[in-house]
């Protein structure tokens, strides 16, 4: 990304109660100087405190808009939440694990987290790019609690494992989990793509109405609402092609859902064969569900 | 003793026939007076609109369904969030704001009284607890009677005297103001997974029709001489083709004589959120507006008043005692839905609803609401409501006012914003009428106060409560027809809101918070009949209610600082 202004936040003190950083996003601070930051008080619990109590802030360069801003956070961000929340442009790099709601409701720009993210990473995101090199906890790219509309656009990449209900109520965009995924990935999803390179614990796609879930690893248990369609090659959704052979299911039929769930046939074949469930022609894949 | 003069305002006070006169309004302590001493404080409101504080005749602001709605729609509570200040608690919520937020927002709009339109007697304690936490506005609540098992038995037996005693007793027990009827017999039918689909359908088991229940309640209401008439949400709400049911309901009480004790009001039936009851057609495919027919009936009859329930094109939360209708809505939208049966009294349902300008049905509903406002000739017969939060949040009243005052704005919306059904299924684009400030004052304060029989508010009459709103709008310097946005902005935040003589809003900021007051009706002279009724129903109550009789009534400590309206026999 092209940046003219770099703002570096070097942590000097942590807080036991989380700092809320949703006001410190490129959209709001692109014109700020170090003097402006010195005057700013960050919300912590029910009070506000000078942000300079917690970060040594260095501003270099000028920006005419949020897209010309690069924010770099150094230190322990485990009690810093809402980083990049509602941002529409610019770049944020976090050289630490982060607390709740990183990239929530973001509509543009990019965030890179060199570490883990707590729950609700990329919640209701509508655009932009969020990459977490480590693991994420529950509700990655999901909806706000109670909402029925989750992530609607953009892309989330999780380098490690994702927690429960990843992509809950997904209504657009793509989530790529390079590790494993806990239960109920893509529950209630209506559109979009979830690609999981690793294994999936149980019940992906519960009550999904549409969209695509691709699992390259081993699946623990599939819900009864998915109908086996057979083996397909190189399936595609919204221009994204997944090369190889996949076992395709459609569901969740409990809601007349037309979602597609693809299991990587080769990856599952080896594991299934150890149970004696799958032969070379995939003729016994109907047994798969009962593992 | 505090005395004030609101000086040089332009006053709209329809109850006293004052239409835009430049005059001073004076009050001493909590009462409007016609003269004050030389020591009175002067508040300069030169060329600003002065009206009585607003009276909302129908909204859902307190009670168990509000709590369920907030719990079940946390996504709504995160909207409209603001931090606490030295005066205010933090605010949250859009369609179902928190209790303090509800009071603040009404106060900002210049309102002083809001009627909670549906209170199950069994849940009345909870309702009053919520009322106590809503500041700055007085809140009478209407107990639900239309599906009460005892009421249906009395109606079947045509035992009007005992029914009147029952109502009198239950108003005391629930600290209620009047008789609310919701989908008579239909909500009871929901207990069997059913509904009633016409005025003469019978409730399962009870062998009584909606017509019999409504007429019995209307007769009992007039026998008691309650300040408000029966307040009805008719059968078939929201169903295409419900106009015949609506007109039958309105027509059924035309021969019931209004009590001579009810000297303020004219009507014997107030029909609420009439927009939802004015649909033609057989399904949503061929649905259309029945507003012309319904408005025509109201124009020709004086025994009916109404409020509209105007759709505002928002994402909102529907909540009603019409539980089967909520199930129908769930089948249409598929959004999350919950419902509840309230023992021997009523039922309730909640479901989010998205009214979109792109949607033909939402557009039709929006058009019908405005048609009703514009086709009912007498503004004393129609009140401004959104059936908050069912058709939209009450915060949108200023926007609705701007639509009513500007044909240009409406035409622009018809042409550029809403679905083309507005031309095919309604007459709205052909209506040129525009409300003036006097008519706006009528439908937002004078008419609702009259309809409820309030003798202390809704007007700037000396002796009335000093409930006053001042808006930063100069009627001589604005063309509402062409400045719709300015009208909306002007009515959104009052310059001053004065409640019981206390300045709550000053220079568009809330500067003070006061305790709310419940208003309830105490009928005198029926004590012997009430005891007889209670003795008769006690075995049934003991057997079927989940609470003991001793725990059923709203004790006085649940209603702090109430306003009791006594009705003599």
From TrEMBL, chain A:
A GO term for molecular function: formylmethanofuran dehydrogenase activity
Keywords: Methanogenesis, Oxidoreductase, Repeat
EC numbers for this chain: 1.2.7.12
Top-tier EC class: oxidoreductase
Source domain of life: Archaea
UniProt-listed InterPro entries: Formylmethanofuran_DH_suC, Glu_synth_asu_C_sf
Pathway assigned in UniProt: One-carbon metabolism; methanogenesis from CO(2); 5,10-methenyl-5,6,7,8-tetrahydromethanopterin from CO(2): step 1/3
Record-level GO BP terms: methanogenesis
Protein name: formylmethanofuran dehydrogenase
Catalytic activity: N-formylmethanofuran + 2 oxidized [2Fe-2S]-[ferredoxin] + H2O = methanofuran + 2 reduced [2Fe-2S]-[ferredoxin] + CO2 + H(+)
UniProtKB/TrEMBL annotation, chain B:
Source organism superkingdom: Archaea
InterPro entries associated with the record: Amidohydro_3, Formylmethanofuran_DH_asu, Metal-dep_hydrolase_composite, Metal_Hydrolase, Metallo-dep_Hydrolases_sf
Pfam families: Amidohydro_3
Domain Amidohydrolase: 41-504
GO molecular function terms noted in the UniProt entry: hydrolase activity, acting on carbon-nitrogen (but not peptide) bonds
Protein name as annotated: Formylmethanofuran dehydrogenase subunit A
Organism lineage: Archaea, Methanobacteriati, Methanobacteriota, Methanomada group, Methanobacteria
């Amino acid at each position: 990304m092209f940046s003219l202004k770099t703002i570096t936040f070097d942590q000097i003190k942590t807080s036991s109660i989380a700092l809320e950083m949703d006001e410190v996003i490129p959209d709001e601070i692109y014109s700020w100087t170090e003097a402006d930051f010195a005057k700013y008080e960050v919300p912590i619990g029910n009070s506000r405190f000078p942000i300079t109590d917690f970060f040594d802030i260095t501003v270099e360069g000028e920006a005419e808009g949020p897209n010309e801003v690069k924010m770099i956070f150094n230190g322990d961000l485990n009690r810093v939440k809402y980083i990049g929340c509602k941002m529409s442009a610019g770049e944020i790099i976090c050289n630490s694990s982060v607390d709740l709601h990183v990239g929530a409701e973001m509509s543009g720009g990019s965030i890179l987290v060199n570490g883990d993210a707590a729950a609700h990473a990329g919640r209701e995101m509508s655009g932009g790019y969020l990459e977490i090199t480590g693991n994420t906890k529950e509700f990655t790219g999901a909806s706000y609690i109670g909402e029925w509309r989750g992530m609607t656009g953009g892309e989330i990449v999780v380098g490690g494992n994702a927690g429960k209900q990843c992509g809950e109520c997904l209504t657009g965009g793509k989530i790529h989990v390079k590790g494993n995924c806990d239960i109920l990935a893509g529950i209630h999803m209506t559109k979009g793509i979830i690609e999981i390179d690793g294994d999936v614990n149980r019940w992906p796609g519960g009550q999904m109405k549409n969209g695509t879930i691709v699992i390259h690893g081993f699946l623990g248990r599939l819900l009864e609402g998915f109908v086996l369609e057979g083996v397909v090659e190189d399936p595609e959704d919204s221009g994204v092609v997944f090369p190889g052979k996949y076992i395709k299911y459609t569901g969740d039929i409990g809601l007349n859902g037309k979602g597609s769930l693809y299991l990587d046939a080769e990856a599952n074949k080896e594991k299934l064969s150890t149970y004696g469930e799958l032969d070379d022609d995939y003729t016994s894949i109907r047994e798969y569900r009962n593992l | 003793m505090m005395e004030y003069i609101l000086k040089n305002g332009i006053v709209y006070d329809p109850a006293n026939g004052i239409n835009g006169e430049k005059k001073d309004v004076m009050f001493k302590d909590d009462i409007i007076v016609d003269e004050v001493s030389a020591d009175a404080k002067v508040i300069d409101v030169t060329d600003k609109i002065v009206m009585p504080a607003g009276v909302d005749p129908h909204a859902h602001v307190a009670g168990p369904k509000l709590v369920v709605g907030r719990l079940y729609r946390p996504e709504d509570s995160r909207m409209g969030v603001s931090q606490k200040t030295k005066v205010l608690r933090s605010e949250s919520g859009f369609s179902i704001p928190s209790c303090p937020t509800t009071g603040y927002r009404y106060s900002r709009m210049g309102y002083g009284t809001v009627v909670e339109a549906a209170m199950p007697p069994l849940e009345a304690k909870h309702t009053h607890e919520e009322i106590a936490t809503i500041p700055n506005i007085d809140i009478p609540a209407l107990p639900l009677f239309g599906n009460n098992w005892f009421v249906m038995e009395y109606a079947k037996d045509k035992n009007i005297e005992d029914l009147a005693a029952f109502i009198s007793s239950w108003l005391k027990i629930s600290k209620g103001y009047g008789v609310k009827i919701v989908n008579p017999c239909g909500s009871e039918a929901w207990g069997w997974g059913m509904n009633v689909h016409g005025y003469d359908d019978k409730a399962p088991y009870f062998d009584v029709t909606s017509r019999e229940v409504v007429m019995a309640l209307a007769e009992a209401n007039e026998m008691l001489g309650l300040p408000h008439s029966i307040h009805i949400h008719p059968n078939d709400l929201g169903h295409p083709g419900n106009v015949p049911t609506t007109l039958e309901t309105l027509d059924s009480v035309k021969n019931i004589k209004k009590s001579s004790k009810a000297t303020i009001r004219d009507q014997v039936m107030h029909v609420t959120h009439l927009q939802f009851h004015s649909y033609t057609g057989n399904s949503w495919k061929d649905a259309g507006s029945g507003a012309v027919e319904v408005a025509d009936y109201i124009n020709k009859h004086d025994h009916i008043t109404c409020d509209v329930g105007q759709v505002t094109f928002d994402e909102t939360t529907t909540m009603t005692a019409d539980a089967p209708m909520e199930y129908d809505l769930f089948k249409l939208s598929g959004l999350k839905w919950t419902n509840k049966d309230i023992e021997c009294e009523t039922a309730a349902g909640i479901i989010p609803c998205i009214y979109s300008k792109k949607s033909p049905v939402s557009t039709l509903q929006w058009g019908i609401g405005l048609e009703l406002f514009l086709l009912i000739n007498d503004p004393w017969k129609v009140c401004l409501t959104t059936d908050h939060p069912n058709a939209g949040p009450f915060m949108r009243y200023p926007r609705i006012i701007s639509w009513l005052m500007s044909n240009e704005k409406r035409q622009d919306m018809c042409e550029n914003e809403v679905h083309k059904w507005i031309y095919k299924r309604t007459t709205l684009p052909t209506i040129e009428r525009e409300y003036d400030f006097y008519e706006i004052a009528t439908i937002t304060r004078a008419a609702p106060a009259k309809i409820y029989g309030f003798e202390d508010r809704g007007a700037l009459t000396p002796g009335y409560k000093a409930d006053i709103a001042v808006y930063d709008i100069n009627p001589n310097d604005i063309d509402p027809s062409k400045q719709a946005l300015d009208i909306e902005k002007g009515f959104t935040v009052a310059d001053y809101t004065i409640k019981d003589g206390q300045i709550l809003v000053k220079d568009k900021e809330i500067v003070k918070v006061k305790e709310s007051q419940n208003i309830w009706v105490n009928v005198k002279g029926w004590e012997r009949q009430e005891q007889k009724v209670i003795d008769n129903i006690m075995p049934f109550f003991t057997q079927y209610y989940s609470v003991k009789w001793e725990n059923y009534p709203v004790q006085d400590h649940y209603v702090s600082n109430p306003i009791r309206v006594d009705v003599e026999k």
